[in-house]
Amino acid sequence: MAIFKLKVNRKEYQVDVDPSTPMLWVLRDHLNLVGTKFGCGMAQCGACTIHLDGVAVRSCITFVDSVGDKEITTIEGLSENGDHPLQQAWIEHDVPQCGYCQSGQIMNAAALLKVNPHPTDEEIESAMNGNICRCGTYTRIKAAIKTAANS
Amino acid sequence: MTIVKTELNRRSFIKSSLLTGGGLLIGFNWLAAACSTSASKGQSIPDEWFEINGYLKIGENGVVTIMSPNPEIGQNVKTSMPMIVAEELDVDWKNVLVEQAPLNTAIFNRQLAGGSDSIKQSWPGLRMAGASARKMLMDAAAKKWNVPVEEITTELGILYHKNSGKKAGYGEVASAAAQLPVPKEVELKDLKDFKIIGTSKKNVDGHKIVVGQPLFGLDYKKEGMLIAMIVHPPAFGMKLKSFDATDVKTKPGIKDVFQIKLFNDDYKPQWCDTTSFTELVAIVGNSTWEVMSAKAYLKVEWEPFADYKIAMAGWGGDQLVNVPSGLESTADHNAKMVAAAAKPGKIERRDGNPEEAFKKAAKVIERTYTAPFLAHTPMEPMNFFADVSADNAILVGPIQSPEYMEKTLSARLGLPLEKIDIQMTRMGGGFGRRLYGHFMVEAALISQKVKAPVKLIYTREDEITFGIYRPAYHALYRAALDSNNNLTAFHVKMGGVPENALHANRFPAGAVDNYLAESWAIESNITVGAMRAPGSNFNAVAEQSFLDELAEAMGKDPIQFRLDLLKRAKENPVGEKNDYDAARYAGVIELVRDKSGWEKDSAGKNRGVAAYFCHSSYVANVVDITGDKDNPVIQKVYTAIDCGVVVNPDAAINMTEGAIVDGIGQSMYGQLTFSKGQPDQDNFDSYRLIRHTEAPKEIEVHFVQNEIHPTGLGEPPYPPVMGALANALYKATGDRYRHQPFIKNSFES
After folding, report:
1. A Gene Ontology MF term for this entry (chain B) (predicted)?
2. Of B292, B650, B661, the CB nearest to A136
3. Is the peptide bond before B233 cis (omega within 30 degrees of 0)?
């Protein structure tokens, strides 16, 4: 066990965990931020996507001792009031079915729009390819990203 | 308007009051605190609630809480079921809060997510709940104003008496209404007067989902809760022999390691119990990562089990199931299926004289279609919370079959049903997997042993390798043509491991004079269960591909060929047991033909068509593809659906789009294979699911407009698209795709 100081959603936290603990479980079990989801544990599904200094990473393979002083953003901290253009577009298009993968989809899309504010269809599909939606909401996710990009 | 006798009785009302405590109800449990809203975020919460019946309560300010009785698995019932109550209550949807009901069989009927039946079977009860509450509010207003109740009208949550000009909000009379007797008869609205049903309403949990608030079983927490995981045999045909937990127990955060046994020795499993792995090792600790890491240090010895028989209580009555010993492999299954298909099967239906017709045929067309085992892989891995003490049990989590699993749990824990409280969280998918709630029993047994609240969590590998798969299927189709290329006989022989998928009385039964349907099955120790559109999810691909091949051999347009058969089935049906409506079947085919421009706009397009009936609804698809054999691109899918009245249209379109993506994904990529009893795939690196780049570029959904009460929708749009895709792939590549997955398959390799 070791003490780690973390900056999550613009707040400082301190956790005492094994250095090999993935951020996914630090967030969910220790910081009570459960919006980041467990899907596969091996960076294959994207349900656990968070931002490290604005870059999308899979928190299930991002170990707590590798974070350092990088800023972590989770779905809970993507916007102050749940009004990020992507969150609004997700509601407008009523994207979710079961909803479980959607926080990871939104976090991945947010990182995409940061580097590419007006992606083409092909760029969206390829950037989002690591995020599985078992319910099959892919066409709506694409439409919502386009709406957010145009807002 | 329709007058109906109410089935809600005072007992259920009183019982519901007891359950919820009556009076002030805000935040009485975690799920109630997770109350979701269709209203704007600033909706003021009432100071006082008045419970009108088990389905709804009204606040003094007119805000209404409607209980959503059924498990929400992504099929939108948490929004659409309350919409039906709100419609008959005649309230403004803006003033409705939605709350997930706990399991309560005294109030609610069939709290099950399965069979595409939630809306269909609850339609009368939900309407009655809303209508009887409206009547009680009208009675209360009539009494207050001293006027005949017949002169009272309602609109958007307001009661009016036109002659005197009096009006009152529902909240003003809710207290008085709650004291009145339940009406013996109530009026239901005419369908044409619907204001909420048939208009698109946003998912009531939408906001919580996009901001990451706790909603799912995996998100549930309680102070002092421990985390548990299980270790199960690595292969089917194996059982636990012994284990050594010495190393595990030295790992940080680990509290206990022990064996659990799912059933008592004299227990007769019911349909939603599984016999996959009934003896497991449980590891309990403080946090998920500690338990997950420690799992690797468990030393276990497994041993093969001998043949055994198990008495199962199922839908079709009790049966004795043979479970053979052995470590099975996909290669063995395939060889056995080929051998079985060469022998006569069990005759399930026979019309005319098919043997004679085949003898006389000018041409016989014979094709074989296969599909592999599939795993459900819902995105949220199996999990459940349990807090079990000597005299009660609290269970919280994602479960499709709470009513049935409560019985299993009651038998295992020796607790009466009323001492078991099951609360349903939103589910991160299920597709049938969460009908089999062994994980709930496991969580309860672990909590009982460690005497603490526990959350059991499966890894993705645990989930994929635990069993309860879609069976592996095999179908042999034959058709006899006369010298004029007319279809004279149709023969299907269908089998599988360990079940077949035959629906002997479905189309094209009833449309062909000489018809034969046979079945067979191969025993296996690999456990299977319902997966989205059971049976149909193979039949539709095989049958609709064969009809396409047949139409081509006969020189007919594939749509016209189907319509001709359905015309025969409608006007002069063969046999009496045909369990489909030929007119509605033809209706969706005509609709998809017209919407896709099949007759005018097919030139130069690689398009395939298919249609199918299951779960009481009719669906037809046209799929357009481009690209080559290795990289087909699904350009557009046209869908026509007849599922009666559509409650929440945009959500219905969403679910249909999802079913289409799912169908394309499973038929293109899905397969679970076995070597020596062990699944060869155990996570998303090896078990392939469809991804963004592979989804259709465009999906168009059209509903047949009619006044038939709602029928199924979660499953019906899933099977036929696979057949339409197979037929489109043929157009694009010149090759027939008869073996799933289309991209590569274990059957031919």
Report:
1. oxidoreductase activity
2. B661
3. no
